[in-house]
Amino acid sequence: MRKLLILILSLSCSYTGYANQLKASLDLFITLPSVYSLTPDKMEELFRYQGVEQSPYYQWLNKEKSRAIFKRHPYENLSVDLTILNTTIPVYELVVDFQGGKFLGCSFSIFNRGDSRGKKLSLEEFNELTQAIKEHLTKALAIRGQKRKPNIRKGILTSGYIWSSSRGVAALEYNETAELGKVDFIGIRLAKKGAKGVYSAASTEHSLATVRKSELKKLVKRGGSEVVIQGLPMVDQGSKGYCVVASVQRLFELYGIPCDMHQLAELAKSNPRGGTNALIANQQLSKIDYRFKTRFTCLAIRDKNTLVELKDGKYVGPQVTFRTFEREIFRSIDKGIPLLWCLELGKFKEVPPLHNQTLGGHMRVITGYDKSKNKLFFSDSWGIGHEKKYMDLDDAYNCTTGLYSLVPILN
């Protein structure tokens, strides 16, 4: 235990002395099997920053402290130099998952277009990065990585390598054209042997929905007059205009599909600097669903002052009335199916209230309702504190620009 503690401390963070520039080594999270004994409390201790309550190195994504995120740019005026492999490889983002108070797995974004701020990787840089990662994972897992090629029928849209041994499972993923020099993203997932959900799927020969629609009903919790879906994973989109793909990632994780917002952004051609238009969101979602054994349906879209059905990319009748809107929400939530919701922010009161400058088009996830109190419950992909919010159903109807369903095909 003492040796482990010395190792962990040697791999933890250090402060450069500049108020807007920090450094943090994340080697701890790829040191197998030592990382498997990591707990949330230990992580807080290792990445504490003296004199401040909230660590600048990471943020918890839920109150249960089962998911945390490390970001290279956590705030506009703060940059954190995140690295692995003895500071030789930069990291844009790291998401760490715990289960039962112990480390479950983690996902690294080594490079992605949304956070790159215009930076590009050459083919030589790509080869150097991936070769170093492959060598480390091969040594750590004591098994040679298996090449995995894209296979649309199996929901595999990335190139890369997978490892699976008694020591754990891992996947190195990158976009199909990266090996030709057009690098859009590079990611790593690793987890304990036997990890379920997205970690299991990421290290196998398929990336399709593994959860059946009938199983989703178990997630519905009723308390008094409230009906709310529990267990929706939190994703933090950061400052990127990725609310659509971040929301989809949350549903995909719920369904056991290991495809994150950076991969989805490439599929949907999302603009990391743009806002959210309901018709564009519909087009983006239509490009995604069939690849993963999920079914996408546009339930309503706004045409001027009216919500209508959308068919073949055109605004058509009949009108989606408030009662129809309400009925679709009640029916979906009762089945355990969260809904993707496009709206204009700032038009109506919500709890907790938005910041005064938070305006414009956005996508959220509808997670519940309270019929007797006329409430709609929803969640934003903005991290902790945004898991459960609400507004009046009437107001929700009037600010809606699009309502969509994305569900597993398996019954």
Helical content band: 10-25%
What oligomeric arrangement do these chains adopt? Answer: single chain
- Strand proportion, as a percent range, falls in 25-35%
Strand tally is 22
Write down the Rg: 21 Å
Mean pLDDT over all positions: 87
- Biggest sheet overview: 10 strands, antiparallel
> Helix tally?
10
Q: Helix/strand-derived class? A: alpha+beta
Layout: helices, strands, pairs:
Elements: H1 2-11, E1 13-18, E2 21-25, H2 40-46, E3 59-60, E4 67-71, E5 79-84, E6 89-90, E7 93-99, E8 102-112, H3 123-141, E9 146-148, E10 159-165, E11 168-174, E12 185-191, H4 198-202, H5 213-216, E13 220-223, E14 226-229, H6 243-255, H7 261-268, H8 278-286, E15 294-303, E16 306-311, E17 314-319, H9 322-334, E18 339-345, E19 360-370, E20 375-379, E21 389-392, H10 393-399, E22 400-408
Parallel strand pairs: 2-5
Antiparallel strand pairs: 1-2, 3-4, 4-7, 5-6, 7-8, 8-12, 9-10, 10-11, 11-12, 13-14, 14-19, 15-16, 15-22, 16-17, 18-19, 18-22, 19-20, 20-21
Helix pairs in contact: 6-7
Q: Which key terms come to mind for this protein?
A:
10-stranded antiparallel sheet; 10 helices; 411 residues; alpha+beta; 33% strand; Cathepsin B, Chain A; 8-stranded antiparallel sheet
Overview of the structural elements:
By secondary structure, the protein is of the alpha+beta class. It folds into two domains: 2-202, no CATH class; 213-408, Cysteine proteinases (Cathepsin B, Chain A, Alpha-Beta Complex). Helix content is 23%, strand content 33%. It contains ten helices and 22 strands. The strands form three sheets. Strands 13, 14, 15, 16, 17, 18, 19, 20, 21 and 22 form a ten-stranded antiparallel sheet that branches. An eight-stranded antiparallel sheet has the order 3-4-7-8-12-11-10-9. A hairpin with a 2-residue loop joins strand 13 and strand 14. It is globular, with a radius of gyration of 21 Å. The N and C termini lie far apart (47 Å).
